[in-house]
Amino acid sequence: MSHSFFQEAPSANGRKVIYQFGLLHIGFWSFVSIISFFSLTLWYGPYDWFHILHICLQALIGIGFTLILYWVFMGIWNKPFAQRASMGLLMVLLVAFVWTIVRIELFMWVTEAGNKWSEFGGWHFASVFIFLCWSGLFHGMRYNDLLKTEHRIMLEAEAETREEQIKRMRAQSIARDAQIKMLRYQLNPHFLCNTLNAINSLIEVSESEKAQSMTVQLSRFLRHSLDNNPDTKITLENEVNALNLYLKIEKTRFGDRLSLDFNIEQEAKLATVPSLLLQPIIENSMKHAIAQNESGGIISLYARVKNNRLIMQLSDTGSGIKVANSKMASSKGRGVGLRNTNERLKALYEDDFSIDIEILPSGGLKTTIELPCEDMSSEINTPNQSRPSHQQKR
Amino acid sequence: MQKLRTLIVDDEPLALKLLRAKLGKLDTIDIVGECKNGREAIAATLDLAPDIIFLDIQMPGLNGFDVVKRLQSDILPLIVFTTAYEQYALDAFDVHAVDYILKPIDDERIARAVERALERIEGVEGHDNKPRILGAIDSINQREKMGEVASQIVADMSVSNQIVDKKVVIKDRDEITILKQSDIEWVDAAGDYVCLHAEGQTHIKRSTLKELLSELDPNVFKRVHRSTIVNLNFIDKVIPHTKGECFLLLGEFEKIKVSRNYKDAIKEFLLGE
Fold first, then answer.
1. What is the CATH number of the domain that holds A379?
2. Any CB–CB contact under 8 A between B95 and chain A?
3. Is residue A29 located within the same domain as residue A150?
4. In this complex, which of B12, B13, B39 lies closest to A194 when CB atoms are compared?
5. Cβ contact (<8 Å) for B104 and A197?
6. Do you find a cis peptide bond into B104, omega within 30 degrees of 0?
7. Whether residues A18 and A134 fall in one domain
8. A197 touches chain B (CB under 8 A)
9. Could you tell me which of A163, A176, A195, A138 has the C-alpha nearest to residue A20?
10. H-only helix segments in A187-294
11. B199–A contact, CB cutoff 8 A
12. What are the pLDDT digits (tens) for A119-175?
């Protein structure tokens, strides 16, 4: 058991403890000495150096006794109250008794005043109150300290929770930002206006069935974008279905210029991906490859599961403009969209994912995303419960 | 009433279809050609000499802006952009009075664009279409912020440049291009802008033709049209055309029209002087 005032943080408050410790003992005994000088020595006269010397000596010895008391009080601090009170009182009486004997002996020796043992009762009475007073002071200071420490700990805890709250709010706002960005992506006015223009055209030339199906595709695609929270995970199959809604619209717009090459293994279809993960990448390919190339191009998506990892490979055939030139310009512009994807994946998978971008010799862009292979059940259950179903599938 | 010879350009087949259907209803419009990219549009403009082009901006290869930049200002028809473009570009169009139709296209906007085109063609002002569009393109580029530092560098360079070598300094978006005069194939002017065509690219410089002419070597650069200058070293072929006009072929792709008034300069060159 430590005897410092601050058991909680001794190192930080070491100097303060020593200071308080010293103040308690020296301050108290200086006070007692001064009172006894003015109220006893001056009152009863003769005030010579011997009496003052006696006051100083008895104070010094008193410090020794209060040090013992201090040590005892700290020792019994954690005991039940009744035990503490009785032991404390007993100690005070004992110490007062011994101190009285010592100071009477000292008084007789220093002042050569003759036998004072007859006044023992009066001396002892004062001693008891001096030590009781010291004990009161000790406990007052000690409780005050504990209160302060408690208050500080409380404040610290409060600050910590506040900081945590701020952190949580910041994380939430990042997630919401991502969601808004995604929505903005989906509701790209350029895409929307061009699609409506195409529908307009179909109506103009009385191809009402095509116009209808395009309207339905557009509304389905918009609903998918609006309904799906980017935080949720969906199966790759669902993600690809949504992609197809979008690509069907683009296919109506661009005609022969857009070709698709999708190859998704059965096992990969059941793996989950963050909703709307592939959409921006495909849209990027539409914007930078298909729409830029006079003869159009191919958008490919291959997905497979290997070593319990879901590997998705998206590529396009580039803009067809001089490779050396487009390499710089297009990869720069296309990197921005992928940074968002990277941020999203980081939030969901920490470091358990990889995303690679490669510029193909044709000027096209190949994006490879690798995620841990999770199925729908691992979203709902704990990972332990989902494992058997994994193995079942193999 | 004279019909407007019209070229329509859009990379999306459905958009082209819509434009054809809408314009076909107007008896002031005579559609002479349809193109599905910028390259075709330039060739068709040179061949067909339309009065007006309805031009999509977002197209593969050369976009709508590139088409305007590459066409000689002397033969540039009226341009109406059809676009689903971002708002800031539309602001630039408004400021520089460039005609545009927003997608999805509606009859009202088409009628207004055609009406304006007719007014312009019948008016005395003639074809000063290019400087307005260049002004709009310039302010769109300015949005993509040109650092003040860069402007300063350009200013400094323009001064020192004249002493050192025969080069032309161009600030384009956020970079500064320094063109060797010997690389410049041809130049056309439009108001306060000149377009320098070099190595398959078009650079826009804010300068008048007069200012630029004072920098260029008069032995190499000759006027072939009111606002067009050609670097004689790049002429590969001369193709005669009607009414004493002719075309110059620069390299494989660039085709320049020579007006009757400036034919003599080319003649001199052909005769070995």
1. 3.30.565.10
2. no
3. yes
4. B12
5. yes
6. yes
7. yes
8. yes
9. A138
10. 189-204, 208-227, 236-254, 266-269, 279-285
11. no
12. 888 888 888 888 898 889 888 888 888 899 899 999 999 999 999 888 888 777 777
**Mutation site, B8, B14, B17, interface A, largest A CB count within 10 A:** B14
pLDDT of amino acid A266: 92
pLDDT in tens, A329-351: 444 455 556 777 787 788 778 88
Q: How confident is the model at residue A179 (pLDDT cuts 50, 70, 90)?
A: low
A270 in the same domain as A139: no
Q: Per the domain annotation, does A92 fall within a domain?
A: yes
Residue at a domain's end among A140, A163, A186: A163
Mean pLDDT of A365-372: 91
Domain count, chain A: 2
| Structural domain that includes position A111 | 14-163
A266-271 mean pLDDT = 92
Residue-level pLDDT at A329: 45
Put simply, whether A329 touches B (Cβ < 8 Å) is no
Total length of chain A: 394
Report yes or no on A363 lying in a domain: yes
Average pLDDT rounded to a whole number, residues B180-192 = 86
Same domain, A156 and A21: yes
Separation CA A107–CA A87 (nearest Å) = 30
Q: Do B60 and A294 touch (CB under 8 A)?
A: yes
Angstroms from B219 CA to nearest CA on chain A: 33
In whole angstroms, what is the distance from residue A176 CA to residue A182 CA?
10
Helix axes A208-227, A189-204, angle to 10 degrees: 160
CB-based contact (8 Å) between B39 and chain A? yes
Task: Give CA–CA dist A206/A201, Å, rounded.
Answer: 9
Residue A384 lies in a domain: yes
Q: Which domains does chain B have, with CATH numbers?
A: 4-142 (3.40.50.2300), 148-270 (2.40.50.1020)
Chain A neighbors of B58, CB-CB under 8 A: 190, 291
**pTM for this prediction:** 0.63
The percentage of chain B sitting over the pLDDT mark of 70, rounded to a whole number, equals: 86
d(CA B220, CA B227): 16
Domain boundary among A109, A143, A163: A163
Whether the complex's predicted ipTM is more than 0.85 is answered with no
User: Among A190, A197, A202, A252, which would you mutate to test the B interface (most chain B Cβ atoms within 10 Å of its Cβ)?
Assistant: A197
A196 has a chain B CB within 8 A of its CB:
yes
